[in-house]
Amino acid sequence: MFIQLSNASKTYPNGVRALIDASLRINKGDFVFLIGPSGAGKSTIIKMLFLEETVSRGQVIVNGKNLSRLSNGRIPYLRRNIGIIFQDFKLLPTKSVYDNVAFALQVVGASSHEIKEKVPAVLALVGLQKKADFLPTQLSGGEQQRVCIARAVVNNPALVLADEPTGNLDPDTSYEIMQLLLDINKRGTTIVMSTHAKDIVDSLQKRVIALEGGRIVRDDEKGVYGYES
Amino acid sequence: MSLNSLRYVLKETLISLRRNAWMSLASVATVAISLVILGFALTLVYNTTQMAANIESDIEISTFMRTDQTPEQVLQAKAEIEKLPEVRSVDLVTKEKALEQIRATLSSELIDNLGGDNPLPDKLTVKASKVDQVKLLAGKVAKVQGVDKVQYGNGVVDQIIAFTHWVRWIGISLIGLLGLASIVLISITIKFTVLARRREIQIMKFVGATDWFIRWPFLMEGMLMGLVGAIISTGIVVYGYTSLISYLHNHLAFIPVVNDPIFVRNLVLLLLGSGALIGSLGSMASLRKFLRA
Fold this sequence. Notes:
Chain A has about 230 residues and is of the alpha/beta class. Helices cover about 30% and strands about 25% of the residues of chain A. Chain B is about 75% helix and about 10% strand. In chain B, strands 2-3-1-4 form a 4-stranded antiparallel beta sheet.
């Protein structure tokens, strides 16, 4: 098993208990939805998985590593094996599509040869090879999200975390983004995605973990959203 | 750091310096000013110390023996003084010799009226090897068996020592204050850069950049500002010092300014080193906080 939370709790410094005694297991290659109302703890789980937040009590294990025991110096190396997709894309507005993706390779010290090889390949994967020289502001929301996905997977990570990746997109575009994520999942990449999108969850029939008030209330293989969203 | 990373870091450093041109300029100027003061203060201290060392050769401790001492006892006292570690040389001026000197310079009539008596004491002229030891040595000499009293320097030594002392302290406090100001200014400049690139830094962290990879461009930026300031100050100090030397040699030759290439070289190295140090301290100060996120 690839990801494991054991009685994981998170209390923020302001006293908010974002996660209470959450336990779950995710296997390599799984596609998992985290669902629930705002503030249920979906984002907290995602953030704990790439150590933007640390667990207050309990254990979080990713890829065999107990994250509470990981030294600060090792965090970057954990993240190199995790691609992160954001609701607001987090692209650099002054860099072109190509440079935004290349950036992820530059900061881990890749050679220019490696960059020239990998960036066009991943841009082709997300269907943006023709817009490599565009700036993010010249792209639609769906295209910007594709750039974000390209940046997330260019290092060929074993795990992709997507925090409401379709939150800012219309339904058609959301569907295209989901197709892309499913393609990436088919290549063996584990995907954990938090979402509010009932239609997507219901149509894809993937594993669904539902959270409410910081607790896991449901964990179904081939689940549905189950709430009125 | 790999060559790829190095290229990235250098590019980012230059972009950032250009973006904050005015702040960078102000930082460079403060570094330059503080280092110019450091340079001149050091030069002044060095020169006064050297000057004091030169004057030292003129400072004698006149040691007068009691008149009841036999020539043997005087020689014994001389040998004893010579054994003191601070002593450079001891010369004996016997009372007979002193009398001859007076006879030569004053009137021989006066001496003849003494009727063969010699009221003068034997005198030992003691020189110290270091100027700041004169006082200590005089104290030791005064305690030697048979010594009546010692005289030296008429306060010149004390004045020189006090002067170098003050130059040193005023210099150190000025340099301290200005150095601190430079560090603060550089850290503010770097903070602007960091804020302007907050987004970039956040993304860098998310895609797995190490803290050092993120730090390097900022550190280089600070160091570069410090170094440029140091180069400017080095130019001013070296040019100012060498022209002062040639002016003094031509017009006021009696002032013994030191023209020592080794001192100048060390000064240049010290200024450049301080510049780089101030720069990196400044950037480290502003980097520590934000990288903890």
